[in-house]
Write a structure and sequence with these properties.
alpha/beta; eight-stranded mixed β-sheet; two-stranded antiparallel sheet
Amino acid sequence: MELNKIWNESNEVTLKEHLDDKSVDIVLTSPFYNSTNNSRTLTNNNSKGYPSCRYDEFVDNMSFEDYNAYILRLFEGFDRVLKNNGVVLWNISYGAANPDGMFQNINEIVTKSNFSIADVIIWKKKSALPNNISPNRLTRITEYVFVMARKSELDTFFMNKKKISVSAGGQNIYENIFNFVVANNNDEVCPYNKATYSTDLCYKLLNMYAPQNAVVYDPFMGSGTTALACKNMDLNYIGSELSKNQVEWAENRLMTGKGHTNETHDDNALF
């Protein structure tokens, strides 16, 4: 199995052909949210000099049925490649076009796969852009990270949590790590993906859940954010990305180190 590589192909192909059984410690990703519609998915605006669209290879407006079936196939693959007591860190949110879509999808995962929700992390972004123009809907400044573990491993999945004491009755007492994380919205603008990921968030999630020398798989690698975070933390990564343009963009980021958050990476600054 080749480490530290981004495969320019479907994640279903990577899972089937390039990842060994029980070879990955963490799946860390932000899938497309399937929260748009045809009229808003492809745009021709100019952002920092880039004529951009939301994604350059596909449109994220599948039917609920097709989207949920696709995600379930991925979780079947995760079940095969994830090491014992590994976790899936699944960052997703909802949109005005189908606000119940996220909840339908999570319900499908919990009821029809071998995974369940171990924790829910609230990611508070530094800004709420784009501002909401709705007269009656809240402006969202948060997203969700669902920590998914196998149902048989909900009491044993790995986390970097220190034991700080033992009670008089023999109960182990652990440090508090709260389920509320503040991190930058995203990295620099990519001409092929308006919805780039946040290196800042990746650092904080990996600090929580990555064992030493972990292998991290991102099935929606995009512009390479997860890979860059892993490289900077001396972890191994494997990625899948349909867009050749984004793979080349990501590989350039990994070579130059450019395109990451401007904030200093501090392993101890989780919140």
